[in-house]
Design goal:
Elements lengths: L6 E9 L11 E9 L43 E3 L13 E6 L1
Length: about 100
């Protein structure tokens, strides 16, 4: 987290039958986690290198200041987008964190 707190998080998808013909089957996600200090009590942490597998995350895409996030679903609210058609990036929303609206 931005304040340095670390968590072990894990998730699983569950698919069900479509409610009506022609509709896609519903997909649900069950996500759980715990503070990293409790990871030894969780079977899903067995065999994980908890230091090497760390990934930064924010509270919400709209509030996160991480420029290099490959999983950003929405641009941040507080920063102006930097659009350059000649530049490629793994991050879907490029912005300059020093420039706020």
């Amino acid at each position: 987290m931005p304040d340095g707190t670390a968590f072990l998080c894990f998730a699983r998808t569950l698919s069900g039958p479509a409610s009506r013909w022609g509709e896609p089957p519903p997909v649900r996600v069950v996500a759980m986690g715990c503070e990293i200090g409790r990871a030894g009590d969780v079977v899903y942490a067995d065999g994980l290198d908890l230091q090497r597998s760390r990934v930064g995350i924010g509270l919400s895409c709209r509030l996160c200041d991480r420029v290099d996030c490959r999983s950003r679903a929405f641009p941040p609210l507080e920063h102006r987008l930097a659009i350059d058609p000649n530049e490629e990036s793994a991050a879907p929303w490029r912005f300059d964190p020093s420039k706020q609206h």
